[in-house]
C-alpha cells in the first residue's frame, strides 16, 4: 500500500527555517562570546539585546563569567539585568566601558546605524559613545543600502515643550528627501514618553540624505532636539545572523 511505500522511504529531515527571533538570539549569543570576566559592559535595549543580557546572566549564574558590571541603556534593560542578578553601575562612576552590545534598526554598508525605534536612543548613544568596543547584533533584515533605506522611522528625541515647532524644523531640514515628521504615540494614542521624560519625532525619508555627518550636526543644532538615532562611525563590529549563517563585519 501507499502507507508501506511511505514507511520504507528514508525519513526526511524537515527544512530548517529559523524565526527572526531565533536569528536575533544567534547573533546575541555570538556577541557574548566576546565578553570576558572583569569587564564593564554596556547593556543594550530591544528584543535582540534582550537575548544578550539573558546570556550574560546565564554565564554569571553558571560561574563562567565573574566580576562583570553592567550599565543598562534603559529602565527596561535595568529591570531585566536586576532580575538576572547582573551587578549594575552607571556611567558617572564608570566613564569608560569595555564593551557594549546592542541591536539596531538599520545597518548601512559603512556600519552606520539607525537606532531608537525602541525609544532608548539617548542612553544608548551615551553608553555606546563611551565604550572601547561596540558590537551590534542584528538579523539580516536590518541591513540597508543607506541610512533611512528601510522606509521605517528615523527617531529623534525632543523636549516635549513646543514639539510641533521642533518637528517642523526637522521636516524642513530634510525637505529634499521627502521627509515626513510624526510625533510617536503610545498604544493609548498619547505621546510616547522616553525614559528621560522626552518625546520622539519619527522621521520618514523617501530618498537618501546626502552627507550624514552634516545632517547629524544640523539636527543637533535645532533647539529642542535632544539627540537623534543616527549612530555614525560608532559600531566597531556588526554580527549579522541570517538563514545561511553568521557574518561578522569589523570596522
Ligand atoms: C532601541 C534600539 C534597539 O536596539 C533597536 O530598536 C532594535 O530593536 P530590536 O532588537 O527589538 O529589533 O535602538 O532604542
TrEMBL record:
Entry GO MF terms: ribose-5-phosphate isomerase activity
Pathways involved: Carbohydrate degradation; pentose phosphate pathway; D-ribose 5-phosphate from D-ribulose 5-phosphate (non-oxidative stage): step 1/1
Catalysed reactions listed for this entry: aldehydo-D-ribose 5-phosphate = D-ribulose 5-phosphate
InterPro entries: NagB/RpiA_transferase-like, Ribose-5P_isomerase, Ribose5P_isomerase_typA_subgr, Ribose5P_isomerase_type_A
GO process annotations (BP): pentose-phosphate shunt, non-oxidative branch
Superkingdom of origin: Eukaryota
Keyword Magnesium: no
Enzyme Commission identifier(s): 5.3.1.6
Record's keyword terms, sorted: Isomerase
Family, similarity comment: Belongs to the ribose 5-phosphate isomerase family.
Cited PANTHER family: RIBOSE-5-PHOSPHATE ISOMERASE 2-RELATED, RIBOSE-5-PHOSPHATE ISOMERASE 3, CHLOROPLASTIC-RELATED
Protein name in UniProt: ribose-5-phosphate isomerase
Species lineage: Eukaryota, Viridiplantae, Streptophyta, Embryophyta, Tracheophyta
Amino acid at each position: 500500500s501507499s502507507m508501506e511505500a511511505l514507511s520504507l522511504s528514508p525519513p526526511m529531515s524537515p527544512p530548517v527555517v529559523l524565526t527572526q527571533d531565533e536569528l536575533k538570539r544567534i547573533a546575541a549569543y555570538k556577541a557574548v562570546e566576546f565578553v570576558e570576566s572583569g569587564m564593564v559592559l554596556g547593556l543594550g535595549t530591544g528584543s535582540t539585546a534582550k537575548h544578550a543580557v539573558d546570556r550574560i546572566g546565564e554565564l554569571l549564574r553558571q560561574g563562567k563569567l565573574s566580576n562583570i558590571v553592567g550599565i543598562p541603556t534603559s529602565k527596561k534593560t535595568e529591570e531585566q539585568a536586576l532580575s538576572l542578578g547582573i551587578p549594575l553601575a552607571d556611567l558617572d562612576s564608570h566613564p569608560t566601558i569595555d564593551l557594549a552590545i546592542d541591536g539596531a534598526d538599520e545597518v548601512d554598508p559603512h556600519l552606520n546605524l539607525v537606532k531608537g525605534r525602541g525609544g532608548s536612543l539617548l542612553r544608548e548613544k551615551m553608553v555606546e559613545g563611551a565604550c572601547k568596543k561596540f558590537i551590534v547584533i542584528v538579523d539580516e533584515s536590518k541591513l540597508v543600502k543607506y541610512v533611512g533605506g528601510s522606509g521605517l522611522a528615523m527617531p529623534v528625541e525632543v523636549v516635549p515643550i513646543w514639539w510641533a515647532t521642533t518637528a517642523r524644523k526637522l521636516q524642513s531640514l530634510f525637505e529634499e528627501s521627502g521627509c515626513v515628521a510624526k510625533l510617536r504615540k503610545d498604544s493609548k494614542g498619547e505621546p510616547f514618553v522616553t525614559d528621560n521624560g522626552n518625546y520622539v519625532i519619527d522621521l520618514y525619508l523617501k530618498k537618501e540624505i546626502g552627507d550624514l555627518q552634516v545632517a547629524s550636526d544640523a539636527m543637533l543644532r535645532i533647539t529642542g532636539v535632544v539627540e537623534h538615532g543616527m549612530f555614525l562611525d560608532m559600531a566597531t563590529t556588526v554580527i549579522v545572523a541570517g538563514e545561511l549563517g553568521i557574518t561578522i563585519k569589523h570596522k
